[in-house]
Amino acid sequence: FFVVASEAITVGDTTVSLPGIGSWLALAIEQQNIAAIAWAVLAMVAVIIAYDLLFFRPIVAWADKFRFEQTASQKRPRSRVYDLLRSTRLVPLVLLALGSIKASLFLEKLPRLPSIRFKTSARVSRTADRVWLALVAAACIAGILQLSRFIGSTLGWEDVASTFGLGLITLVRVSVLIVLASVVWVPIGVWIGLNPRWAERLQPIAQLLAAFPANVLFPFAVIAIVALKLNPDVWLSPLMIL
Fold first, then answer.
1. Sign of the torsion angle spanned by Cα atoms 32, 33, 34, 39
2. Dihedral through CA 121, CA 123, CA 126, CA 132, nearest 10?
3. With CB atoms counted within 10 Å of each terminal CB, which end of the chain scores lower, N or C?
């Protein structure tokens, strides 16, 4: 979410765009190019699937041999990429080349640095903790005073009350959405967890949806709200729990 959002940042009259899907999506939204937005969604799905197949699953399959359990798991993680790397001759050749480079650089003959051990008493440790907490408290107090001076010089009490009121409205909206989402998805999650067959089928889809940045879908939601003439105060709220 934040990686995509941070690729196109606008602060005042300054706009910073980094190469990536986020800046592509921001430009597509600015130009109202629906096809470009769809291509951004497809590219994000392809990147997530490629990352899962080429990087995440091989690591999970490799790390499974270090797992220690009293009872054997029903199904061990498998990865075709990991099986391919194990059966190919390329990996041993690469490891052999790295070993020869290490030997040629005399890394094994470098002297080890002497281990340095610091002996601290309990009294010194408690004193250091108190000094550190005092410094942190002083920094927090100084920051609060500086922030209060800035707010007092630029904003009035009406602005502060309005900000807290709007924040309270947002808190109520988010709390209601969390309750509604919990009522719907907690029973579904429990049912999936109690059915191993369905859990195995839905796990890739759940992983894809969990890794997919929700802000990429915001333009389609806005287009649907405008096209169907829906109330934005109501239908923009579900975007918070995507």
1. negative
2. -90
3. N
How far is 17 from 126, CA to CA, in rounded Å?
48
Query: Under DSSP, is residue 1 helix (H, G, I), strand (E, B) or coil?
Result: coil
Please check whether residue 54 is in contact with residue 37, taking contact to mean a CB–CB distance below 8 angstroms: no
Tokens of 216: 């990429």
pLDDT in tens, the chain (242 residues): 666 777 777 766 777 777 878 788 888 887 888 888 888 888 888 888 888 888 888 888 888 777 766 555 556 777 788 788 777 777 777 777 777 766 666 555 556 666 666 566 666 678 888 999 999 999 999 999 998 888 777 777 788 889 899 999 889 988 988 999 899 889 998 998 888 888 878 888 888 888 888 778 888 888 888 888 888 878 888 887 77
